[in-house]
Structures are given as structure tokens and as C-alpha cells.
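Please produce the structure of this protein holding guanosine-5'-diphosphate.
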Amino acid sequence: MYTKRLVTGGTGMVGAAITADLKIGSRDCNLTDWNAVRDFFEAKKPQQVIHCAAKVGGVWANMNQKGDFFRENILMNTFVLEAARLAKVPKLLAFLSTCVFPDKVEYPLTEAHIHNGAPHYTNDAYAYAKRMTDIQIRAYREQYGLKYVSVIPTNIYGKNDLFDLENGHVVPSLIHRCFLAREKGEDLEVWGTGKPLREFIFAEDVARLTEWAIENYDEAEPIIFSTSEETSIKELAEMVVELLGFKNKLIWRSDRPDGQLRKPSSHDKLKKYLPDFQFTPLYEGLKQTIEWFEHNYPNVRTH
Ligand code: GDP
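Below is the modeled complex.
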């Protein structure tokens, strides 16, 4: 039995938004168990694999669980690519992240920069594990001629995200915390100084770009998925506050980390392939995400 398109991490934010014949989550196959992964791929014989599964988290989780982030990601990525090779999967796409880029580097970030220096210390364990996916893909392309590729999305947000208050990324954590503060009539705590800049991209845009890339993209070098528009954490917090109709004060917690100050990236390569792609504006994507959150609460992932 052949499965055309398999998505790992199928219950996650991006995986849920991609069209596929089979989507798997951690309950269906433990991707850190080599025998389980090999047997699964052998049985399903996919023709395309979109590998979204990863242990992910925001700046706090990345700083405090470096061992888990390194081990789980390097095992999953190594095993999924190797099982795909053994099962003769002709096309595979894996997700990297803008965390992979060096901390001290010329801006904007481009696909050619990945390995030129150490990543930021807050997420280096995750970043090095992800960098090895790029190495493995290049090695498999060179030695085995496989059409495996990788993509680098910037900060993704959207429906089905992990709304963990401590360990989530900034958008879902802030939405959840602001929702609770509004319900309880309390002030809203936001981390850091509000000055860092991020390029937020809507999960459904990433899903459309991924569906294009699995069919059409075949370079050894990754491709960055980015709007190339920076937004400060302060501006982000103001949009969340407005959309949730929150009326109290914002309290900036200086005991929580800022992380990297900025990581502006170039989408020149993407624009060369898809000059007319329309990104969902941040305000609109946040509006949809918040509507989804309020509609589904408390049945949202929070840990
Ligand atoms: P990063 O791009 O890997 O650093 O990912 P994050 O999603 O964790 O974004 C971190 C930025 O948002 C930092 O500047 C944080 O200080 C800021 N931030 C503000 N409030 C929060 C929050 O509640 N959770 C997280 N994760 N970050 C927050």
C-alpha cells in the first residue's frame, strides 16, 4: 500500500494546515525510536514526506531544556531521513528554523549563511540539531541522488499552536495570558523589553508554501519562507491587546529574556520562484488566530 503524501507532526500548527493523505502525531509513531520509524516507513511506503515534527518551544523552553531539545530533534530528524531513504521515498521536505542562523552575522539572513558562526546561546542546542538536518540532506543528495530539501520559516503563528504560558512562543503565550488577564480583570505581563524584532508568518501561508515546495523545489540549499517584515514585540502586544479588547495595563518583565534582538531575513529566493505570493497580513492572521482560540478554549493545546 503506497501513501502519496505523509506529514509528520500532523497535529501541530503547520502539519494541521497542510493537505496530505496521511498525517501522524507522536501517538501514531514515536519518531525517536529507530525501529518504530523504520517499520512505519516500510509499511506505508510514502511517495512524499513533509517532516514537520519537532520538539519546539519559545525562548524560555529553549534555554531550560537544552538536553531534551537537542536529543529529541537530532534523533527524529536523523531517523526520519534515514527511514525515508531505506523506504525509497523519492521526495522529502524538512523544516529548519531561523534559529539555525549565526548570532553574529550580516543582515539580512540568507540561505547561504546558515553555518557561518555559532547560533544565539538561548537556543543553540535546538539550532545545532536543526543545522545537522541541512548537512544530512546535502549528504544524501550528493551520495544517493535523493531529491530531499529543507525550508526555513521565520516565527510561525496560527491556529492549533501550543498555547503554553511558559514554554510556548510569544504569540500563543501572549494570546493565552491576555485572554486570562481579561477574564480575571488583571494586568498583562509581557516578557523582556518589547524591543526585539521578529518576522511573523501565518501557519496557513507556511502550509501553502510547503505544498508548493514539495512539488516544485529541488535545490540542495534551503529556501527561506519569510514576509521580510519586522514587527517589534511591543507592536505585537498592542495588536493582541486590541484584538482581545483588553483594557488594563501592560507590565514588562525585565527578569525574562529578550532573546536575539532581531533576525531579519531575505525572501529574495522565494520571490524569484513565487513573485505573486500574497502573505496574510499580521493583524489579519492574529485576528483569525484569536477567534480560533476563543472559539476552542479550553480545548487548545497548553503543554
Ligand atoms: P524566539 O524568536 O525564538 O526568541 O521566539 P519567541 O517566540 O520565544 O519570542 C521571544 C520574544 O518575545 C522575546 O523577545 C521575548 O522576550 C518576547 N516575549 C514577550 N512575552 C513573551 C511570552 O509570553 N513568551 C515568549 N516565549 N516570549 C515572549
